[in-house]
Specification:
Number of strands: 0
Oligomer: single chain
Helix content: over 70%
Number of domains: 2
Largest sheet: none
Length: about 450
């Protein structure tokens, strides 16, 4: 009989590996979009897709709480073997997602006007970016519902479902991109239509997998359970706190980009290249964080103290191991990666000057990713919100202000301190939750 620690290694990997693979399919889609549009005759097509995609990245990322909040609640219901609550939580989260999607569709005009006001571009770029926006916005119901379905399946300890949904969505998008743009001769409209159709295909697959999994946990659909006021308030409170936490993170990254732009085009381009290092690392480490969400939630639902300890220990070991792997990768291959991402010598030189920050960032950022997973599994969104506010307002912005004389090195140092502060404040909050008996360790 295997030991509990070995068992948890298997459980963590069973969930983490499919999630890492599905996460890595997301930047692949962005590369294909760029390559397809980048070969059209006018550069403003590429600029339009870049701006349009950026708007939806921030808009939909802001609703990421639909995925995170659902995972924690479902994982705990799964641990309790509460089949009725498993269905009721799914229904509540799905209704909330569709309500938000309806609001996006109704408010699409002011949302678009605000976005294009904040993102200045040439007349041609704005014209085609608006065309992209008015088409792509109709993917909102499928996109937000997908967040719920993926979060629900992950809470049910099923990582293959999210992998299949994301792979089907992104591969469909790639095939449709090529068909509409290269074969049919469309431009920005083809890329947008491909994204909309792909999201609905992925949503159909997600619904099929969800109802298939529900058959293994039979229970009735009860309106009284779905519309339970206490549970609805719990869901809204959890999601609102996660949303505020996410908006702070979006602000910090957008502020970093904006301040880099003020330092000149070369610095802006170099920082954009180096942020790809952070994105790749984040997608990989998020796989272990998502695994921690599901397993921590299940252990708390079962009220199994030993399993909870084992999950946190195992997820921490593998997260640190992968962080060290990225440190080594960027230290030995960082310059080569920069060369693959740009053929402009001046941009390469500036990126190499600041590469040192990307090399050591994984060791600092890994703890915030891990604790995010633990806190989501424990449904402690209020603490996530508070630690993010502290890290943003009391560390990141003051550090940036004080380190401005260092130029771009100061900007990267502020981002590094922001990530460190997130890890430290969450660790401190975690210890308080243990002392209070909220997290049974």
């Amino acid at each position: 009989m295997s030991s509990p620690i070995i068992f948890q290694h298997h459980q963590v990997f069973r969930l983490a590996v499919p999630l890492i693979l599905s996460n890595l399919s997301i930047p692949l889609l962005g590369l294909v979009d760029t390559a397809v549009v980048g070969h059209l005759e006018h550069s403003y097509y590429l600029g339009a897709v870049a701006i349009g995609a950026l708007i939806f990245s921030f808009l939909f990322w802001g609703f990421g709480f639909l995925r995170m909040g659902t995972t924690g609640l479902i994982a705990q219901a799964f641990g309790e073997d509460n089949k009725l609550e498993i269905r009721a939580t799914l229904a509540r989260a799905a209704l909330l997602a569709l309500l938000f999607a309806l609001l996006i569709l109704l408010l699409q005009y002011p949302i678009g006007q605000l976005a294009f006001y904040l993102l200045e571009a040439s007349r041609e770029v704005e014209h085609y970016a608006l065309e992209y926006f008015t088409i792509r916005v109709w993917s909102a119901p499928a996109t937000l519902l997908n967040y719920v379905l993926i979060g629900w399946m992950l809470g049910m300890q099923n990582a293959r479902g999210p992998l299949l949904v994301l792979l089907v969505t992104n591969l469909s998008n790639i095939v449709l991109d090529l068909w509409f743009v290269i074969v049919l001769g469309m431009t920005v409209d083809g890329v947008a239509i491909a994204s909309v159709i792909a999201e609905y295909i992925g949503c159909a697959v997600g619904l099929w997998l969800t109802f298939k999994l529900l058959k293994q946990h039979p229970a009735p659909w009860r309106n009284m359970a779905i519309l339970n006021r206490h549970k609805l308030r719990q869901l809204l409170a959890l999601n609102s706190n996660i949303m505020l936490r996410t908006l702070c993170l979006i602000f910090a990254l957008a502020f970093f980009t904006a301040q880099g732009a003020k330092l000149g085009d070369l610095v802006l381009a170099a920082n954009a290249i180096l942020m790809n290092f952070q994105t790749l690392m984040a997608y990989a480490l998020d796989g272990f964080a998502h695994a921690a969400e599901a397993l921590v939630g299940r252990a708390i639902g079962k009220r199994d103290r030993n399993e909870l300890k084992s999950v946190i220990y195992t997820a921490g070991i593998w997260s640190l191991g992968f962080a060290l792997l990225f440190v080594g990768l960027y230290a030995f291959a960082g310059q080569w990666i920069i060369m693959q991402l740009s053929d402009i010598d001046a941009v390469r030189a500036v990126a190499e000057e600041y590469l040192i920050w990307s090399i050591f960032m994984p060791l600092v950022a890994v703890w915030s990713y891990l604790f995010d997973g633990i806190f989501i599994g424990a449904t402690r969104a209020r603490e996530m919100r508070n630690t993010m506010l502290l890290s943003t307002l009391l560390v990141f912005l003051p550090a940036w202000w004080l380190l401005q004389p260092w130029g771009n090195h100061g900007l990267w140092a502020a981002l590094m301190l922001f990530m460190a502060a997130r890890g430290v404040t969450m660790a401190w909050s975690f210890r308080l939750l243990i002392r209070r008996g909220v997290i049974p360790l």
